[in-house]
Amino acid sequence: MAKPFLLLALSIVVFALLFSEAYSEQETRSTYIVHVSPAHAPPQSSSSPALLRLSASSGLWPLSHFASSAVVAVLDTGIWPSRPSFSDADSALPPPPSSWRGSCVSAASFNASAACNNKLVGARFFYKGYEAAMGRPIDESRESKSPLDTEGHGTHTASTAAGAAVKGAGFYGYARGVAQGVATAARVAAYKICWASGCFDSDILAAMDAAIADGADVISLSVGANGYAPPFHRDSIAIGAFGAARRGVVVSCSAGNSGPGAYTAVNVAPWILTVGASTIDREFPADAALGDGSAYGGVSLYAGEPLNATLLPLVYAGDCGSRLCIPGALDADKVAGKIVLCDRGLNARVEKGSAVKIAGGAAMILANTEENGEELIADSHLIPATMVGQIAGDKIRNYINSTASPTATIVFRGTVIGPSPPAPKVASFSSRGPNYRAHEILKPDVIAPGVNILAAWTGASSPTDLDIDPRRVEFNIISGTSMACPHVSGIAALLHTAHPEWSPAAVKSAIMTTAYNLDNSGETIRDLATGEESTPFVRGAGHVDPNSALDPGLLYDAQVDDYIAFLCSIGYTADQIAVFTRDGSTANCSTTTLPSPGDLNYPAFSVLFSSHSDVVTYRRVVRNVGSSADAVYEVAVSAPRGVNVTVSPSRLEFNSVGQSLSYEVTFASAANPVIVGDNYAFGSILWADGSHNVRSPVAVTWPSSLVSSS
Ligand SMILES: *[C@@H]1O[C@H](CO)[C@@H](O)[C@H](O)[C@H]1NC(C)=O
Ligand SMILES: *[C@@H]1O[C@H](CO)[C@@H](O)[C@H](O)[C@H]1NC(C)=O
Ligand SMILES: *[C@@H]1O[C@H](CO)[C@@H](O)[C@H](O)[C@H]1NC(C)=O
Ligand SMILES: *[C@@H]1O[C@H](CO)[C@@H](O)[C@H](O)[C@H]1NC(C)=O
Ligand SMILES: *[C@@H]1O[C@H](CO)[C@@H](O)[C@H](O)[C@H]1NC(C)=O
Description:
Layout: E1 11-14, H1 21-26, H2 48-52, H3 60-63, E2 71-76, H4 112-115, E3 120-125, H5 128-134, H6 153-162, E4 166-171, E5 174-179, E6 187-192, E7 194-195, E8 198-200, H7 201-214, E9 218-221, E10 223-225, H8 236-246, E11 250-254, E12 273-278, E13 282-283, E14 286-290, E15 295-296, E16 312-316, H9 332-335, E17 339-343, H10 349-358, E18 363-367, E19 385-388, H11 390-401, E20 407-412, E21 416-417, E22 425-426, E23 446-449, E24 453-456, E25 475-478, H12 481-498, H13 504-513, E26 526-527, H14 536-539, H15 546-549, E27 554-555, H16 560-569, H17 574-581, E28 605-608, E29 615-624, E30 632-638, E31 643-648, E32 651-653, E33 660-669, E34 675-676, E35 680-688, E36 693-701, E37 707-708
Parallel strand pairs: 2-6, 2-9, 3-6, 9-11, 11-12, 12-23, 16-17, 17-18, 18-19, 22-26, 28-36, 34-37
Antiparallel strand pairs: 1-8, 1-10, 4-5, 7-8, 13-21, 14-15, 14-20, 16-20, 24-25, 27-29, 29-33, 30-32, 30-35, 31-33, 35-36
Helix pairs in contact: 6-12, 7-8, 12-13
């Protein structure tokens, strides 16, 4: 059934922000995100569980038995099985559920009977598309033709989604505590789809189909297309996820690391859970202290001998041959023994420190330029180094320029957990909406922890994945939407276990309508790209809140037929729809009943006005899944600027559990003929019954032709 374009099609990238910034800062930023999962957090432990508010004593964790009967399929760079995150020793896990039909496959460098156990229940590898695309067999001197993860990303994402609790985890001295996957007792099945030269569509689709056939409950994909989202019928992840939805398997994907531009989110099909990345309340501060007494806050995961309080001479790399600190381009005479201020951009951040080290420099201050603003990423540098934002960078550059003998030192402050600065914030790299392929489907869906996430790592590569870095670590701290996605995959596994009767759309609805939108200081979650409040095109429905998702009150459900009607509504032909259904059936769009893609029963609203006086009406159906048969919900609307919103009826009176009721929302543009400033506005629709708040974000867009710059 596979069309030729499914084979050898575009290379897909992993979404972690680790390495070469060449991708991230020039084309798209593909990040694999790795995330060490939070644990029942002792105060000093990794804090992402704390932000997720998961507790061993109440809520979703105990009520789902930590998802021990669920299998999470992680399609990624493979698995490093000997990490304690994948051990079944302590947890006395029983054999996997009888519905599990997957297996572990042995290969030259992978002994399945030694690697797999009741925790790691599957390990397979998919390479035929890769070999066909490369035109040669895999070079086994360069990479392992097996499920083995020699890169690190897959081990990180798998342990984030479903790693066992590991005490005393950390990265050198940083983030010490219990590391634990979100679905702590869920089983892991690793499907290696990404190779040294990329992840290929046909391997991705084959692995998705295999995971579904094997009996996985959730598929976690921290992978996506490079560039704008491809059309759904040419997007292997969208096609595979459609098949998953049909069989009740939740597919959770990263949105990509191509932010902060608009339309950068990928994996935007409505049947996919699309996850952006946010910060957590854990920082790794390292201050740049200057000879004039000023100090600028930065971040670092440098783990070697710290600098002492003695001030060292400070130079700007731009005055020493290479503003960007390209290896080999720095003048050793000018940097020897000094702290070098390097500009961010182009080459990998850790490589810049290495370039300073090779040229004889003592330390590095890495400063953002306008391109990255105030977004800070803590890196495990090979020399004493910290990263500062653009504002601090400009001040330090000025200080160097205006001082006869500029000096500085770096003060490393270890791991700091607390309310300042406020968290979560949306990372600037996190890809944003609107949805490039279907404006009426709001994307991303949610945000989840994706910055400075601690999780397990491969033993085959360094924590920076740079050859110049000889270190090997059990755990690593990295950032990206790749790290955010497996958090939500873990939450989906917990919810699927607690509510086995819920469809993938229902799981997604519960996660979205219960997400929160205020940070820990009570303000709307901010966007690190602007410093301002984030919008639903940036944070989707908000930050995931798993315990609330357990009891959402109402669900916006959808089935495969609804998705077929959606494809009809965006003009897909029967042949194009057959790419998704893959069962020989022919869709007849004249018999489907979705007037507009915005009528899909989605837990969010994105309205595209065609004029300043346009009126758009969408219909929704909600199912009562609370414990109260006669629940009564009242609507509360926060209307976007320039829009009159009418909800009818404004009161939903149920008389049984499981009952569905429908409502209509009319969005009437009341904007002036000429719109000044932004052609977007935002609001929300909230249904509340006194014990549940069921919230949907609203985004409206006017044609840019109506916008005046004055
Ligand atoms: C694979 O691992 C099993 C279990 O540890 C061991 O008995 C067996 O000898 C190993 N096989 C090979 C080929 O190393
Ligand atoms: C601080 O470090 C410098 C450079 O490494 C060294 O020369 C100096 O002795 C150190 N001072 C103290 C007080 O340790
Ligand atoms: C330093 O000052 C000179 C002259 O004002 C200016 O041209 C140069 O761009 C400055 N360099 C930095 C790094 O600010
Ligand atoms: C699609 O449905 C319409 C209305 O029922 C019918 O007239 C038409 O023949 C169908 N087309 C196909 C290709 O089945
Ligand atoms: C919007 O509501 C206001 C106040 O009720 C009303 O005056 C106005 O006519 C409405 N505009 C549209 C386009 O519905």
